[in-house]
Write a structure and sequence with these properties.
By secondary structure, this protein is an alpha/beta fold. It has 10 helices and 9 strands. The longest helix has 18 residues. It is globular, with a radius of gyration of 19 Å.
Length: about 325
């Protein structure tokens, strides 16, 4: 197949944009024992004989949801989705034990073998893009294509921007709410201060910190304003799992060997067809990381959505991702 131009492309606006595919129900679902005391919930959707894809949710600490299936043509794709360790319906909920990036990478491999898939397209946004890249550089022979949104490399600069000094300048009102649970003396390292509370034995302290941590992300996701969470997100158990796991990964710098490690591995994926979709006004994972990845991986198509932030459900992001999944059918 002729590769797409490496030059940045601008996603169209208006009536010409593509929308999501129809919602479909899983044709197969269950739990997979991955060891270390964890059982991972997974499901398959779309066409049983379709082109295989694995769809990775964000966070870390998020969960799969029905909208994630709708970026793929259900008549042509065989989609696999799973809740990462401690997340969603995976068991035990909110567990930090044996829960790191490399365990998740191997869980993707276990799922591939469990489903009898040889190679597949890997799709992920935000933390899902991080995990997709970590999997691809570890198992490049198993990846047909990569489709990434809101690229996040878990560098010190990115974490500092969102959790210490950066996005706070654009959202001072929301930032005050994020600071509220943390005494002034501990505000020099907010990720560590939150980690202390999210791992506290008192469930009430965990819940208070989880609510503030989660609200900060919700307030900054989209150009359309603060995002309402799915109903289950407002439940204490889900909010605590999300915040605990996310903070656990960030206080450990994504469990990467050194700052910038993921970008340093880009040469290992340059032969893989790729699509990068980035909102121009993404405040959660600013475009600098996606731009750096594009420069290290010039063969990938790079789509800038000029009227979008971080959320996957903004119209221009939907359009670019749907076009990417359609194009990936041909590789």
């Amino acid at each position: 197949m002729e590769r797409a131009s490496p030059s940045p492309q601008t996603a169209m606006s208006g009536a010409g944009r593509r929308g999501l595919f129809v919602e479909t129900e899983p044709f197969h679902q269950g739990w997979m024992n991955v060891g270390d005391g964890h059982e991972v919930y997974y499901e398959e959707c779309g066409a049983r004989l379709g082109k295989p894809a694995v769809i990775l949710h964000g966070g870390p600490g998020g969960a799969i949801n029905p909208t994630m299936r709708r970026f793929f043509d259900p008549a042509r794709w065989r989609m696999a989705l799973f809740d990462q360790r401690g997340c969603g319906r995976s068991r035990p909920n909110a567990s930090l034990q044996a829960n790191d990036t490399w365990a998740l990478v191997e869980d993707i491999e276990r799922l591939r073998r469990h489903l009898g898939v040889e190679t597949w397209t890997v799709f992920g946004g935000s933390w899902g893009s991080t995990l997709a890249l970590a999997y691809a550089v570890t198992h490049p022979e198993r990846v047909d294509a990569l489709i990434l949104r809101g690229v996040f490399l878990v560098t010190d600069a990115e974490l500092n921007w969102f959790y210490q000094d950066g996005a706070s300048n654009l959202f001072p009102d929301a930032w005050e709410r994020f600071l509220a649970p943390i005494p002034e003396a501990e505000r020099g390292d907010l990720v560590r201060a939150y980690h202390k509370r999210l791992t506290h034995p008192d469930r009430r302290i965990q819940a208070e910190a989880a609510a503030a941590w989660s609200q900060w992300e919700g307030d900054t996701l989209s150009l359309r304003g603060p995002q309402a969470r799915p109903a289950k997100f407002n439940e204490t158990d889900f909010a605590v799992a999300f915040a605990r796991i996310e903070c656990h990964y960030f206080v450990n710098k994504g469990f990467f060997p050194h700052d910038g490690w993921l970008l340093d591995q880009a040469a290992k994926i340059r032969h893989i067809p790729g699509w990068i979709v980035q909102g121009r006004f993404d405040v959660v994972t600013p475009m600098r990381a996606a731009w750096a990845l594009k420069k290290a991986w010039p063969e990938a198509r790079f789509d800038i959505v000029w009227d979008a932030g971080h959320a996957s459900t903004e119209p221009g992001v939907i359009d670019a991702l749907v076009r990417a999944t359609d194009a990936a059918l041909e590789v």
